[in-house]
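Morning, I've got a small favour to ask if you have a moment. It would help a lot if you went through both lines with me. I owe you a coffee for this, so here goes:
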Amino acid sequence: MIIDDLLTPGLLLPAISRFWDYSAYKIDNLKDNYDYSRGAPVFTVNGRYSSRSWTDWTWGFVFGSSLLQFEATGKASFLESARKDIDIHMGNYLTHSGVHDHGFNVISTFGNLRRLIAEGKIEKEEGEIKYLETALRCSGASQASRWAPIDDSRGYIASFNGPHSLFADTIRTLRSLAAAHSLGHTLLGENDAHISLFHRLVYHAETTAKYSVYYGEGRDIYDCRGRVAHESLFNTRDGSYRCPNTQQGYSGFTTWTRGLAWIIAGYPELLEYLETVPEKDYPEGKSPEYVKAFMLKAARATADFYIANTPTDGIPYWDTGAPGLLQMGDYLNCPADPFNSYEPVDSSASAIAAQGLVRLGRYLEKYSETADEGRRFFQAGLTALKTILEEPYLSTDDKHQGLLLHTVYHRPNGWDNIQKGAEIPYGEACMWGDYHIREAVIYVQKIARGERDYQFFTGLQNGTTE
């Protein structure tokens, strides 16, 4: 990347204002023209949102987008529709024990509603706070119940692939455990054992930092500092680690950039949350200093890797080891080309990473003595965000239902639409990309306006009575 050191959140406000105009139209277009009975909209095909039966992990991004749109613009219709749709479509998900995605779906919806009430942005309806907090408690416990032990205490939240599988993605869904813990919730196990949700958050984050993230310490011959393995596999009989793997990347020994982005976004957000957790809540032998140190190590390494392995404008190709990149010459020293004939970019990874980079920079400037390092990450995040707020990434075509173009869902499975005459997928959007660019924009907009930072845990400490 070439980082724009002169860019500021304030300078992005005109582009942000324009962005919310397009965002509003896209939300209304989808609501008016998509049949919800088909399942959650996942990604576009020729500009129209379609579903994909794998797991229904994108409903939260649909309705969460409406909440962010309301927050940004104050238009009540987005809040009203979100409240109604969340109530109709999201209830069963709260106790879904088969997925690792609660922090995506539930924090984006029930969590955002609870946050907006805490910030005084909306008036609570009768019984709404208890309803929302109960939802967050159920979600956090359901997520934590997918526990795969490594030994007597350590372990991880298993992905939907099964108890042997740890996904890098899950680091950002730990928000569900954090929210429930802040509300005082405990997971009850066999013989009424009280299981701390925060302990499981810490152990999962530690396992992810150890096995999903590389540090250039000689773990294998592909151990490049900051590289991320999408999936880590374990022997479920004895808990031993076996090998890196991937589901959506090119290989277990290359870096799928959306998995990288989840790590970049996940750890800084957790570091912010740790500032609210008293020392007595930590697992025995895991001091606050120790936990913050391994999270910062993972965050710094992956942020550095992103900057070093992304084209000059901040938009990555879908996997840093994708074989077609060899045909593209010095592709890192020029802007990304979504229309090339060899490998697709994934702008959804940049939307996720942009927020993580800005958060990490802000955290370091506030809580560490490395202000220069923090500024570097902050400016890198702004640089990537500036790129995706403009064409050809921002979708300005009223006929296209997507907001953020040139995203990739599952390249190995061939699920992404390839337009007639093209060699690779381009020009399509996905629901997580559309949501996360909105979330990144909200975050930066709040900074520009001097408002309170966008943090999922605002107002959750010990709950709030009616």
